[in-house]
Amino acid sequence: SPHVVWLLSWADELVRARKWNEADTVFKRAVSEDASSRSHIAFGCALAEQERFHEALCEMTSALDIAQAAADVDAISVIHHNFAVIYREVGDFDLARRFQQRALAQTDDCGSFELLALANDAWLAERHELAECLAGTAADIDDEEAGSNCPEIEATCAVISGFLHDPRKGIEPLLRAYARHKAAGEFRLMGID
User: Fold this and answer.
1) N or C: which end of the chain has fewer CB within 10 A?
2) What is the sign of the dihedral through the CA atoms of 63, 135, 188 and 52?
3) Cα-based distances in Å from 45 to 56, 78, 131
């Protein structure tokens, strides 16, 4: 409903302002009014951003139940991807890889962010050349789709290139990604860069 969309937009603004308690209240209201999985997904992502991983997994599980009952393949893919992100954050790389594979199995097309997630999984599995190839392909697709690299892809490519080849060549794109995350107020991503 338009009201739920408005609530989710408002909650997102509160998240960007780091007003977590108020955002939680608005997300809970959206969840109570929304029969689809989207409010649970959005709330789960906000909880994960706060490193409230158990609560985030609970919201994603609720979203998955709703999406599976509705046979919403796109939502199921998004939820599996978010499970992968959360498990990667808590250090369970094997489970993260398995959820990323489930996410990809639900989609007809693999985009730049899916390839970036696979590159991260390959890197964590110490398959560095594969990680470089996947991250490079993600950057190529992102260039074709958006015209400029997203900071996450640029930072990942910079780290991989700097580690495998010349660390000095990785610094400039990494600093660019850092500056873009800072300008967007993505402080957690700045820390990752």
Assistant:
1) N
2) positive
3) 7, 11, 25
pLDDT digits (tens, 9 = 90+) for 153-188: 888 888 898 889 888 887 888 788 878 777 877 766
Dihedral of the alpha carbons of 176, 155, 58, 66, in degrees to the nearest 10: 90
Q: The pTM is what?
A: 0.69
Q: What angle do CA 19, 75, 24 make, to 5 degrees?
A: 15
Asked if residues 10 and 26 have their Cβ atoms less than 8 Å apart, the reply is yes
Q: How far apart are CA 42 and CA 24, in angstroms?
A: 11
d(CA 6, CA 13): 11
CB of 97 closer than 8 Å to CB of 125: yes
